[in-house]
Prior knowledge:
This protein has 15 helices and 18 strands. The protein is α/β, with parallel strands linked by helices. The model is unreliable at 274-279 (pLDDT under 50).
Amino acid sequence: MRHIPDQAEAQKQFFRDGKTLALSFRLDRLRDLRNLVSDNTDLLCRAVFHDFGKPEFEAYSTEIATVLHEIDYHLKHLKSWAKPKKVKGSLLTFPSGNRIYHQPYGSVLIIGAWNYPIRLVLHPLVGAISAGNTVFLKPSELAPETSKTVAGLIKKYFAPDYVTAVEGGAETARILLQLPPDYIFFTGSAKTGKLIMREAAEHLTPFTLELGGKSPAIVHQDADMETSARRIWWGKCMNSGQTCVAPDFVAVHKNAEPEFIRHSKAVLKSFCGNSATGAFPEVKIINDSHFQRLSALLSTADLILGGETNAEKRYIAPALVRADWNQRIMKEEVFGPILPMVVYDSLPELAGRLRDMPSPLALYLFTGSSDVRRDVIRNIPFGGGCINDTISHLGNPNLPFGGVGASGTGKYHGKYSFDTFSNEKSVLDKPVWVDPDFRYPPYTPAKLNLIKTFFS
């Protein structure tokens, strides 16, 4: 591969030549991406297993199927999305035609995250291709086998002047950011997100940040407790809790606490068998540093159930711990299979505490009350979420996915991905057959009185 700045210039020239603009070109490249994924499913799943020990079912359902679904959705709808959108004129612009055109940014940079090292690189790539951009991809170096595999497949299926995957760590990312790209799409931690924002500000580069935060699951006293426990633990245990939208903690109404604990024990037994490391997938914590951080959180927690650890395998069994709002475990994102539980007396009290925290990427509410749903959705800021479920909102391409405030900025999935990687150009088309002198100088009292008549 060329030196990165040379490759960047080649991509920019490829874009300037207009090669990405034809709808047929974009559709063909989406099909190439689909072939990349579908023809190499086993290879990709093996790479994820090497990095995480993730079973094939979970790797396929969370990494492969989601990308294929997104590609198919774009193949079905891209033609209509790409058409100029006609909008109404106004009294001030009459007569005129008014349209919105979608124009790709140019050469965009996508920086993926390690926790879903296929999905979080290829999913935004779908939108970048649909919109007509050239792309630099940087897979996460923390999932090295998957990074190598994805980079190799990108090289095999795409011309480097169109899509290029660059492996490397923080220094590689810094070089890519300073090219500069025409748009940045980043998934990762808030700490790194701040660095991305600083680099983007230097060049006034537009960006999307998909971050994370402490996403709460709220279990109200009227919730179906058995279903609530099962769905919360399903979301928490997926990828061993290393999911940006995993329930980071659970807030349980004081009247429901004993029943929630009882059902949690039953759920984890059904997931894991009699042993804490029984049938449940032993997905590894990504590296020793993260394992040690989670172990330290667990060692100081009031353990209710679970929590067995195996340092050699970097495995932590799902754990429910009793927590206080002021503890360290409630001040930082857990990003692991430990579920802190806090108890609340009333929704207004809980809402006040949640509003005082940074806005989370997701919120999950378990209740049968429409009034409770309305109050939580209206009064607590969050990126997106579910009622009586966890994580499933990511599976609907009609729903925008993204954070707010500390959990990120910008949305994607489905048409929102196409919009994210497109600049909406507003164009007013004025006919020449009528050109009254009303708007032109001199601005007489009669003209002023006429315009006041219209708008007063």
